What does this fold into?
Amino acid sequence: MKPVDTRMALLALAVGGFAIGTTEFAAMSLLPQFARGLGIDEPTAGHVISAYALGVVVGAPTIAVLAAKIERRVLLIGLMTFLGIANGLSALAPTYHLMLLARFLSGLPHGAYFGVGSLVAASMVPREKRSRAVSRMMLGLTIATIAGVPLANGIGQWFGWRWGFGIVAIIAAATVAMLVRFAPVLQPAKDASPLGELAALRNGQVWLTLAIGAVGFGGIFCVYTYLASTLTEVTGVSSAFTPVAFALFGVGMTIGTLVCAKAADVALMPAAGITLLFGAGALALYAPATPHLWAMLPVVLLIGCGGGLSTILQTRLMDVAEEAQTLAAALNHSAFNTANAIGPWLGGLAIAGGYGLPSTGWVGTALALGGFAIWALSWKLDSRKAPSLGS
It folds into this structure.
C-alpha cells in the first residue's frame, strides 16, 4: 500500500468542503436571479433554499446508517460524485419544482461528507492532533464564505445564474479526482452495521453535544441572516458594501476554526465552553454596534470567530459516539442546519415584535448562553464518570 500524503489528502477533503460551502451559501446570493429565471417570486424561491437544508437534515443520518459498511474513501468519492450531479441538475432545472428536487438532492451528501471526512482526517494524524486535522478539512467550508460565494455569484451575474451552480459541479469533479489520487483507504470497523450506527441515538452525551450546536450556534445564524438588512437599514451603508461585511465574517470563521481546533486538542470541553461564552460576548456587542460602521466591522469579525465551535463539537462527537462514529459525526451538520432554522426564526419573531433589526444580536446572545447551559450539563455528567479537563 502506498504511503498517504496527509497534506494532499486533507487538501482534497477541503476542496470538497469548498464545493459544499459554495453551493449552500451561493444559492442564497443567487436567489433573485434564479427567481426571475424560473418565473417565480422571491418568497417562493426561498423554498429552494429550504429544500437544500431539508436535504442535509434527511441525508446526514440516512446515508450514515445505510453506508455503515462501505469503505470510507469509496463513500467520499460517491458522495462528491452525487453532489456534482445534483448541482448539474440544479443548473439545468427548467422549472421551479424540478429545481426544488435538485436542491433537495444537492443537500443529501452534505452532512455525510463532512462526517465521514472528519473521521478520515482524524485517522491520518496522532490523537492529540485530531481537531487540527478536522479543521483543515473545515477550512474549505469557511473559505467558501470568503471566496467561493463571490466567485459563484460573479459567474452567475456575468454568464447567467445557472453557471453559479454549474461551477460547483466542476469543483466537485475536481474533488473526485483528488480523492481518487490522495485519499487513504479506511475500512469501517469489522462489526459496523446500520443497527450499530443507530446505537449512537441511545447515548445521552451524543444528544447533548448535538443540542449544544443546534442551540448555541443558532445565535450566529440569527445575526448572519439579517446582516445585510441591518447594514443597509440601520448602519446606513449601500448594498454594494455588504459583501465586505460577509467576507469579514468568513475571515472570522477561518480564524476561529484554526484557533479553536488547536485549543480543542489541548482541552476539548473547556474549549467548547470558552467558545460559547466568547460567542455570547461578541453577539452582545452587536446591537450597540449597529449604528456605527467602524464598530460593526470588527464585531462581525468577532462573531464569525465563534464559528470555530463546529470543529470542537465534531471532535467531541468522535469521543462520545463509541462505535457509532459515522452517524454521530454526520448528525453534527444536521444540528447546525437546525440552528440555521432556529436562529433566523427567533430573530424574525423579535423583528416582527417591534424590537428592530439590532435585536437579533440579543436573541443570538441568549441562544449562545443557552448552548453554554447545555454544555455545562454535559460536562457535569462527564465529570461524574471520569473527571478530566481534556475529555
About this structure: The radius of gyration is 20 Å. Residues 325-355 form the longest helix (31 residues).
